[in-house]
From TrEMBL:
It comes from Zea mays (Maize). The lineage of its organism: Eukaryota, Viridiplantae, Streptophyta, Embryophyta, Tracheophyta. This is TTF-type zinc finger protein with HAT dimerization domain. It comes from the Eukaryota. Residues 100-197 form the TTF-type domain. InterPro entries: DUF4371, Znf_TTF. Pfam families: DUF4371 (PF14291).
Length: 309
């Protein structure tokens, strides 16, 4: 008698929670069904029949947000917002089974940014309503763009009677409420990302400045043969180590100020050292230097402070 060969897989359980089906005894796998020949009623139940992963993007296959475990709902909303509406462009969409058969048009995506299309069910859905509408209460038409999907293409672009426009409704409609929630969460996600990036860049710049300053100070002390540590390095000590002193704010500030002042007065010093200089040129140099030092005193503090900080 032959023994059944065991593979290594049978000793391990799947550990990817996203690949695990929702624990619902009503769900069965019908992914192999032909999407075009689905009966209308069967298609309406397709959401319940389809074995969907948690973050499936196809709106005809994905699980309703409210059916997800509570701690995954917010994560799912952020995922779908970051991915955007599922707008699949096909060369030719399937004809529906109406008496005058029509098909979905890809240019509707341009007119209605919220619109999604499922190649699996050949139906249209609304992303903001899917993410933020309340639990369906069974009232006719309310869950068309979230659960059942819409495929009555004849009703699209019928002027005021256009099904997409009717779904959007007026400013206080459920759809516009969902769009508001969608935009708020999208903006907050973008805002948080930007703040995080900016804050990280600031932290990196500060760390880099501290490191460069310390390295330069160590190099300077080494070349001068100065000791790094002093006799007493406590905060109020008058005999702190040289390394402690030269990385302090006031030390760096005074050095920078001295450098700027010496750059300004350098021209005057060189002029005065020339014996052939006439008194008018010397007076011009004194006057120019005075103006430049005045400018530094009036407007030059901020750049120096920024450089030190
Ligand atoms: Zn909607």
């Amino acid at each position: 008698m032959k023994r059944k060969l065991k593979t290594i897989d049978c000793f391990f359980q799947r550990d990817n929670p996203r690949a695990t089906p929702i624990e619902n005894p009503n769900l069965t796998n019908v992914q192999d069904s032909d999407p075009i020949n689905l009966h209308t009623e069967a298609a309406e139940l397709n959401q319940q029949e389809t074995l969907a992963t948690t973050f499936e993007r196809d709106p005809g296959k994905r699980v309703q947000i409210l059916m997800l475990p509570f701690d995954q709902q917010d994560e799912a909303r952020r995922f779908y917002i970051s991915e955007g509406p599922y707008q699949v462009i096909l060369d030719e969409y399937p004809l529906n089974d109406a008496s005058h058969a029509r098909r979905f048009q890809s240019n509707w995506f341009k007119q209605f940014s919220w619109l999604e299309y499922s190649p699996h069910t050949d139906r249209a859905y609304c992303l903001p309503c899917f993410l933020f509408s309340k639990k369906p209460i069974g009232k006719y038409g309310l869950d068309t763009f979230t659960v059942k999907g819409f495929n009555n293409w004849k009703k699209v672009n019928e002027g005021k009677e256009c099904a997409f426009l009717k779904h959007m409704g007026n400013s206080g409609s459920a759809h516009n409420y969902s769009v508001g929630c969608f935009n708020n969460l999208k903006n907050s996600m973008t805002h948080i990302d930007k703040v995080m990036v900016k804050e990280n860049e600031k932290l990196v710049a500060e760390a880099r400045l501290r490191l460069t300053t310390t390295i330069n100070s160590i190099r300077w002390l080494t070349f001068q043969g100065c000791p790094f540590r002093g006799h007493d390095e406590s905060q109020n000590s008058l005999n702190q180590g040289a390394l402690q002193i030269i990385v302090k704010f006031d030390f760096v500030f005074i050095l920078l100020m001295m450098e700027k002042i010496m750059k300004i007065t350098d021209v005057l010093c060189q002029t005065l050292q020339k014996k052939s200089i006439d008194i008018l040129n010397a007076l011009d140099s004194v006057s120019n230097t005075k103006v430049l030092l005045g400018n530094l005193r009036n407007d030059g503090w901020d750049p120096v402070l920024q450089e030190v900080c």
